[in-house]
Amino acid sequence: MAILDGKVPPGSIEEKWTNHKFNMKLVNPSNKRKFTLIVVGTGLAGSSAAATLAELGYNVKVFCIHESPRRAHSIAAQGGINAAKNYQNDGDSVHRLFYDTVKGGDFRAREANVHRLAEISPNIIDQCVAQGVPFAREYGGTLSNRSFGGAQVSRTFYARGQTGQQLLIGAYQAMMRQVEAGGVQLYTRREMLELVVIDGAARGIVTRNLRTGEIESHAGDGVILATGGYGNVFYLSTNAKQSNATAIWRAHKKGAYFGNPCFTQIHPTCIPVSGDYQSKLTLMSESLRNDGRVWVPKSKGDKRSPEQISDDERDYYLERVYPSFGNLAPRDVSSRQAKFRVDEGRGVGPSGQAVYLDFRDAIKRLGEHVVSERYGNLFQMYEKITGENPYKVPMRIYPASHYTMGGLWVDYNLMSNLPGLHVLGEANFSDHGANRLGASALMQGLSDGYFVIPYTIGHYLASAALPKITTDHEAFKATRSDVEARVAKLMSIKGSCTADDIHKELGHIMWEYVGMSRNSDGLKLAIEKIGKVKERFWNDLRVPGEATGTVNEELEKAGRVADFIELGELMARDALHRDESCGGHFREEYQTPDNEAQRDDANFCYVAGWEWKGDARPQELHKESLTFENVKLATRSYK
Amino acid sequence: MGGASQSTIDLKLKVWRQKDAATGGRFEDYDATGISTDASFLEMLDVVNQRLIKGGEDPIAFDHDCREGICGSCSMVINGNPHGPERSTATCQLHMRKFNDGDTIVVEPFRANAFPVIKDLSVDRTSFDEIIAVGGYVSVNTGNAPDANALPVPKVDADQAFNAAACIGCGACVAACANGSAMLFVGAKVGHLALLPQGRSEHNERVLAMMDKMQELGFGNCSNTGACAVACPKDISFENIVRMNREYAKASIKKRT
Ligand SMILES: Cc1cc2nc3c(=O)[nH]c(=O)nc-3n(C[C@H](O)[C@H](O)[C@H](O)COP(=O)(O)OP(=O)(O)OC[C@H]3O[C@@H](n4cnc5c(N)ncnc54)[C@H](O)[C@@H]3O)c2cc1C
Ligand code: FES
Q: What pLDDT, on a 0 to 100 scale, did the predictor assign at position B2?
């Protein structure tokens, strides 16, 4: 085991980033165009990074699996983005956002990163407004805010229920401007299938052209992965169908440490599963909990329709258990409470796997038009999917896999342990600890892309000795043939199960044993079962069609499922080793008498960084210990 | 249990199959039996595809990702309508409860000059990105922004700008248009940015550059039928085209003088 160094700069928490910016080396403006940077991913993190790096003068090559960069999964974010603007004059500050995020993450994030995020947050809003992002406004013309879980101030900026769309369009447009200006070369429908490492440094990638099947190589001076999270390891999740872990998993197998893989977020308010055909789960934004009240019947197995259940027969359990945060308790806590109620036999709907989110009182208090103004598009979305009208009957919701706090380990400069490999956005492990607060992922993606990487990568480029290399280098040739062999292998199995069959099977195991609550026996069983799934995959997979000359979505899926299987196993191992409960990681053996997560700071106050050791051996654990100098380590309470 | 119905229906599909842009295509018939009425249209196609793969056939290619009506990936023409018969609905949001047992459903790709078929129901819409690249933005580098509240924007303007900015770039407007015009797409972007003070200063250059690019890429002219706005899953208003025509005329005159 090695000790991981987060390379946190010295000085007081308020001064670290400012001093660090001054102390980092700069690349002379006329030298910037001599450097080629590879950016993989065009979500908020990737697009904002690509646009900004090209503005600075770097030569940027951008890759995404989508047909257009604007289709990245960030487009689907609904509720909003946090920033410590304190426009509401309700007591917000950089320090409070920092504090809320560290506490919300259950003290498993690096303080210095979180503080930087809070410091940068106001600049993000300024930048987005300047780009023409149409945030919600008050009649006086100033920006509006709403509240999200885990906070007692209103600091969330939003654009109706389409905040991610509007922010991504802003970043995408800024990037397209650089495409036109020649600073960005865009490679769409390209999937990164390998990282190329030369003399220990990340120097390029190998991609598959998803239209033609061609395997292509690209060399650069630095590689930036912004490929999103791995929530689809559960098969059913709120993530877009193509969201995947392949880029980060391939990098992991090339030496990058994987940070806290078991820290995944199960979002409390999603439309419940309805049948086998189900391909994804739809999120109902957390913002709904500003006005919606969550409840189940007080008595078990009460099958009456909701309007027949009077108020004193209802258990508004979040308000009961957490009087000060009520329906706005953080996500991990709210999800777990929903599970407890369902496990007690008090779930609602045909399968009993749901709870109510009720707007009756809000409609009474505010009128239907106000509720519709606030949440109209979400209500409409709900009605389209379920065929039920939430103005009349309460929504039925249940938790679903939504976000992954874990990801590739990075230091303060967002560089992994592999020199030159930088990781941004949901793909890294960095800022959210064991639980992310609502509206903080968009903030982190744009902070990483617009305001952090443009500085820190310059420092790397100016400090490293980077000999010129081309794709003729031996390492490229070898990596290419690895990729070709893998594709050929997937095509050659010709078994009887589809990639979806196997993915669903993996998903069931992950949800059952590595989901909302975990225990040692279950995790051991999961590891065993995942091993069997892996065997079935490599012996009985069927990929139809050809690998080249045309689009083959089944082949794309197969490659991603293969990686999800291995990652799923690592998640279980990580969850098994972490003998404590914290944030989204709830180990049944470690809970307080009133069923709250019980951390073990004496033994587990660290980031777990896992090192790949080859197919035959389990990963090795490395630790980055976390110190809390500015927020006192305390038991989280939302009561 | 998402919906409460729990019933299934049997359907006949006529689906356009085409290997690639260079090869001609044709309709093929498929049975889609035992489809849950709670499933979405894309989930129905998933079920059909899983059966095709297991039967040794090539699955039907179609674009999709978010499956909640926001990424603009899904396309296809269903019974003659881009994104199907429901108003304000993308294909991924269309649910099978809108169909009846025994229905025959005809499924084709979006058809337009500027959207060549890639395979089956999947078409190439990268021409939209090319239009954005020539001017669909505010030219502001990272780090140059004043405080976000320094310039108040009247709520009505912000709301209108949002309505235009809600475009998901799916291309249904182009597919619905007899001339394959992209006026609604371009009008929405021009409108979004023109309605905000941040976007005003380069407004003339923007509208000229985007319109010229649109023509260069093989999109047709607008003949004011309004079919685009009817097909739009996001209710982008035809107003955007009217506004853009006005602005284009003004910008052209300005450029000449
Ligand atoms: C339904 C939903 C609602 C949400 N709402 C909110 C919210 O209101 N507020 C909030 O803060 N957060 C929200 N989140 C979380 C947030 O949207 C995401 O965490 C964030 O957008 C991730 O951005 P990203 O740039 O890291 O990655 P993504 O947006 O996921 O982008 C990944 C990119 O990588 C590319 N890519 C992936 N793999 C490869 C590969 N192998 N090769 C090449 N390219 C690849 C993709 O094409 C894509 O361009 C929400 C999430 C969901 C699912
Ligand atoms: S799949 Fe994203 S809009 Fe339909």
A: 41
Q: A278 and B42: CB-CB below 8 Å?
A: no
- CB contact burial B213-224 (16+ within 10 A = b; e otherwise): bbeeeebbebee
Q: Name, in order, each residue with C-beta under 8 angstroms of A367's C-beta and a sequence gap of 6 or more.
A: none
Rounded CA-CA distance A312/A363 in Å is 20
Q: CA-CA distance, A313 to B218, in Å (whole number)? A: 64
Residue A233 pLDDT greater than 50, yes or no: yes
CA of B74 to the centre of ligand 2 (A): 5
Q: How far is CA A213 from CA A186, A479, B247, in A?
A: 18, 16, 44
pLDDT for B4 equals: 47
Ligand 2 atom having least distance to the Cα of B71: 2
Task: Tell me which H or E stretch contains A622.
Answer: strand A620-625
Q: Which residue of B has its CA nearest to A283?
A: B68
A405 lines ligand 1 (CB under 6 A): no
> A445 vs chain B: nearest CA distance in angstroms?
14
To the nearest whole Å, the CA of A274 is away from the closest chain B CA by 4
pLDDT in tens, A238-264: 999 999 999 999 999 999 999 999 999
A443/A434 Cα distance (integer angstroms): 17
Quote the mean pLDDT of chain B.
95
Ligand 1 geometric centre to CA of A448 (Å): 13
Q: How far is A78 from chain B (nearest CA, A)?
A: 10
Can you read off the two tokens belonging to residue A589? 């053996």
What is the Å distance from ligand 2's center to B42 Cα? 10
Among all bound ligands, the one having the nearest atom to the CA of A281 is 1
pLDDT per position as a tens digit, B147-185: 999 999 999 999 999 999 999 999 999 999 999 999 999
CA-CA distance, B205 to A352, in Å (whole number)? Answer: 58
Mutate to test the pocket of ligand 2, among B73, B78, B123 (most ligand atoms within 8 A of CB): B73
Residues touching ligand 2 (Cβ under 6 Å) are B 64-67, 69-74, 90-92, 168
Task: Give the alpha-carbon dihedral of A105, A108, A113, A116, to 10 degrees.
Answer: 40
Which CATH number is B126-138+154-256's, of 1.10.10.10, 3.10.50.40, 1.10.1060.10, 2.40.240.50? 1.10.1060.10
Tell me the ligand closest to A282's alpha carbon: 1
At A217 the pLDDT is 98
**Can you identify the CATH homologous superfamily of domain B8-118?**
Beta-grasp domain (3.10.20.30)
Q: Which of B65, B186, B190, B236 best tests the A interface by mutation, with the highest count of A CBs <10 A?
A: B65
Contacts of B165 in chain A (CB under 8 A): 132, 134, 159, 166, 169
Instruction: Answer yes or no: is pLDDT of B6 > 80.
Output: no
Is domain A474-625 annotated with CATH 2.120.10.30? Answer: no
Distance of CA A490 to the CA centre of its chain: 28
> Given this model, what pLDDT does residue B257 score?
66
The answer to whether A137 contacts B134, with C-beta atoms less than 8 Å apart, is no
What tens digit of pLDDT does each residue of A189-231 get?
Answer: 999 999 999 999 999 999 999 999 999 999 999 999 999 999 9
Domain ranges of chain A: 17-266+403-464, 267-400, 474-625
Boundaries of every domain in chain B: 8-118, 126-138+154-256
Res B255: pLDDT? 83
A166 lines ligand 1 (CB under 6 A): no
Does B192 sit within 8 Å of A134, measured CB to CB? yes
The ipTM assigned to this model is 0.97
Active-site annotation of A, residues = 331
